[in-house]
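Risk register update: the risk that structure generation would not scale has been downgraded. Supporting records follow, first protein first.
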Amino acid sequence: MTELIEQYMRTLKLGGLAKNWRSVQYVSTEQYLTELLKIELHEREINRINRMVKTAGFRVMKTLDDFVWNSSIELPHVLTQEYMTELSFLQPKENLIFMGAVGTGKTHLATAIALKACQEGHRVRFFTAAELANILLEKNTKGTLNNFLNTLKKVELIVIDEIGFVPLHKDAAELLFQVISDCYERKSLIITSNLEFSQWNTVFGDNRLTAALVDRLIHHSHIIIFSGESYRLTQSMNRRRTKKGV
């Protein structure tokens, strides 16, 4: 009978109940039914969040618990760590721009904030600048660009990582400009870059387009400077010292 009950539950797509219904103690009909429904709702919420995290497209998972704040991370005086990590910037549709040298924690923090947004039920997409540029070019060639842009309109937070690592083709730069323009005052962006704004023309290849893009991007943005040494290099050097000391 137990196997039959669980089979019925799975047929009705009640996977949470099928796994956990036997752990519920019966006190009254109302209490028992309430506990069963709570189990199923909790399971569905977990599955929904897992789907959102998968759809976001994170390259690696990074959490805020693993992130090390230090004095080399320079916040503007109107911004606090809590404002970022508690996702307060999402409601007013503000942007976060992380600028600094390679390996200083920009991508880690961007990923961790975006992951928390997913876990709290916000729709998120994560791209590197080169990846997004290639997707836009491919969709444009295939005639499916508008469909892709419409999917982005449903997203609350877009992360564009590593602007500055690869110069963009003229068409890709224009398409990326369109994406950022479409986000203006409609959703939040997190941008990471190893270049100052004055050098972005080396990426986008057009001074006027670059100026227009930066103008839209910084209007509702908080700019955070990562001025320390490479975190990965520091870790590597520490491991070498530890091995030599053994």
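Supporting record for the second protein:
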Amino acid sequence: MIEIKNLSKAFGEKVILNDISVDIKEGELFSVIGPSGMGKSTFIKCLVRLLRPESGSIIVDGQDIASTSNEFALARVRRSFGYLFQEGALFDSLTVLENVAFGLKYLTDIHKSEYPRIVKEKLALVGLKDVEHLKPSELSVGMKKRVSLARSIAPEPKYMLYDEPTTGLDPVTTGMVKELITDMREKLRITSVVVTHDLKLALEISSRVAMLLDGKFVEAAAPAEFRQSENKAVKEFMEISGLSRE
């Protein structure tokens, strides 16, 4: 479980997260939705302490990482996380094999002789084969997303963080990414946190959907309950997204 209590984050005078509290349960797929610029990416960057909050606690498996300066403790907790960046963040100069194996080298004690087997296994999980020798420039947008996900799951994380996983993708690739996220949860039993402005995606894949607005979660509920919310901001976001309450 990840427990977030009274979490606040600001950049100068601008408050991005304002005293928010939420528990993310083991095995669930928790989506954070909302308009751009509302702090969704800031939220998950705080979860893995890429950003240090001003106040509050982030308890991961009993360890509060919000304010600690102990790099050893932070490194230990970060090994529990996989992170799919919005742009994929593949290394252009490395092959697919080298990209996927990158986390194995720095986050595990696995001997490098095992890397090819593990890379092949993780690529197969995301529906790719015989691409280990290719460079990112030789891949389609959808293939890059798959390789990025394979790299994220290679060290076998307990938690997966997805930052706007479908931004800029065509409908076919968006559908593929949706299936990948749900497959990873079902096959690997990974607790997942997805931040997205795509409400349709969130309602289709999530166990719970939370709307972040003006630094607060104004609603957090199962998809069916979220659709029926009487919160004005939620209703407006539903309308803007072209979705019905049914």
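The chain has two domains: 1-80+159-246, 90-157. On this basis the risk owner (M.S.) recommends closing the item.
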